[in-house]
């Protein structure tokens, strides 16, 4: 008899390990939704009607002539440097086609009525006026950081 056959016979001669009993299955208890209570999927509960505050002073100036940099989304504009001219710090902003424009505090840029509040050496602070989803507007702070040199297209 070969070693393999002896091994198979010895394994078959050993008693089998005991098998664990089948676990008890708990019966499912169904939930009966009380129809006389509020419907949790009612759209008025999920998103209640909210109206804009008619007295809110936050609103874009419709009479202001849009500036050139307002023709581009804010996320497509890149700050590539600064320029100090007569004591005023100007931001150098690159538009998607690669041209560079200068802007300072008080100028507007981006599609959401973004007004430059402050120009720093490493970023431009912008305050945008965006719709709040309820028929009104709200202010949102944003910034354009100085791009790395690898991000600047030559």
From TrEMBL:
<dbReference type="InterPro" id="IPR007446">
    <property type="entry name" value="PilP"/>
</dbReference>
<dbReference type="Pfam" id="PF04351">
    <property type="entry name" value="PilP"/>
</dbReference>
<protein>
    <submittedName>
        <fullName>Pilus assembly protein PilP</fullName>
    </submittedName>
</protein>
């Amino acid at each position: 008899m070969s070693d393999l056959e002896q091994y198979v016979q010895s394994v078959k001669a050993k008693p089998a390990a005991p098998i664990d009993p089948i676990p008890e299955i708990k019966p499912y208890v169904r939930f009966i939704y009380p129809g006389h209570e509020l419907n949790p999927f009612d759209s008025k509960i999920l998103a209640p009607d909210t109206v804009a505050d008619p007295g809110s002073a936050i609103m874009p100036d419709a009479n202001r002539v849009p500036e050139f940099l307002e023709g581009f989304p804010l996320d497509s504009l890149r700050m590539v440097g600064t320029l100090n001219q007569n004591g005023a710090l100007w931001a150098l902003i690159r538009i998607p086609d690669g041209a560079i424009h200068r802007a300072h505090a008080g100028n507007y840029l981006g599609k959401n009525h973004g007004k430059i509040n402050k120009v720093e050496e490493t970023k431009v602070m912008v305050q945008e006026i965006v719709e709040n989803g309820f028929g009104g507007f709200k202010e949102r702070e944003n910034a354009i950081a100085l791009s790395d040199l690898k991000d600047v297209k030559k």
